[in-house]
Amino acid sequence: MATAEGTFPKDGGDPPYNTEYNTIGANRIRQIYTGNGFDVNRTASGTQAENHEFDAIATADLGGAKYIRFKMTAELTIQQTSVSTADNQHVNIQLQTKEIGGSYADTFPKDILVSTTHGNSSGSGTRLFVSSFAFEWVHALTGDELTDGVQMKILTEGVTQSGNGIAKLQNKQVVIEIL
Q1: Which residues contact 61 (CB under 8 A, 6 or more apart)?
Q2: For the chain, which residues make up each domain, given as ranges?
Q3: Is residue 153 within 8 Å of 95, Cβ to Cβ?
Q4: What is the C-alpha to C-alpha distance for residues 119 and 116, in angstroms, rounded to an integer?
Q5: How far is CA 167 from the centre of its chain?
Q6: Pick the CATH number of 29-178 from 3.40.50, 2.60.120, 1.10.10, 2.120.10
Q7: With contact defined as beta carbons under 8 Å apart, do 107 and 98 qualify?
Q8: Tens digit of each residue's pLDDT (9 = 90 or more) over 88-125
Q9: How far apart are CA 124 and CA 143, in angstroms?
Q10: Of 31, 74, 94, 131, most Cβ neighbours within 10 A?
Q11: Alpha carbon distances (Å) from 178 to 17, 39, 44, 63, 106
């Protein structure tokens, strides 16, 4: 027979009380961001760099968590119109964290999310790549971040090497969770 609501200790295998359901996973999602603060849309030769700082998470709000999970859904667009092997469009991403009051350091170093190149120097045609993209990264909190709280930042770059190329990242949603 199940133990009555609020009675402890519970018998092994007893389901959680109704009041316990309200605390399972409570406050694990710290932020949902649907803004465009780090979107890039490079449509001419060169580099466009953007960044966005997410809400700080105070030590008291970590609730014993040891990790932060960063989940992003975005739309990526890459277009290449030249057949030159030197004509390359790409989108880079970089994630950084810091203890509140400290300096940012890489948790995910700058890396290419998507890139296109024809791979040969003859022929013709345009390559267009448009796709929804999901990216997930788990960061182990440092001792200072556990003590002082933590803040995360994303840096993005759209790089095109031709006047007709496109390198675009458009955020759909970022979810920051503590684990």
Answers
A1: 27, 30, 149, 178
A2: 29-178
A3: yes
A4: 9
A5: 18
A6: 2.60.120
A7: no
A8: 888 999 999 999 999 999 999 999 988 876 555 555 66
A9: 54
A10: 74
A11: 24, 24, 39, 9, 18
Q: Tokens for 178, please give them.
A: 């503590």
Q: pLDDT for 68-97, tens place per residue?
A: 999 999 999 988 776 655 668 889 999 999
For 77, the token pair is 């667009």
Vertex 171: Cα angle to 163 and 166 (nearest 5): 10
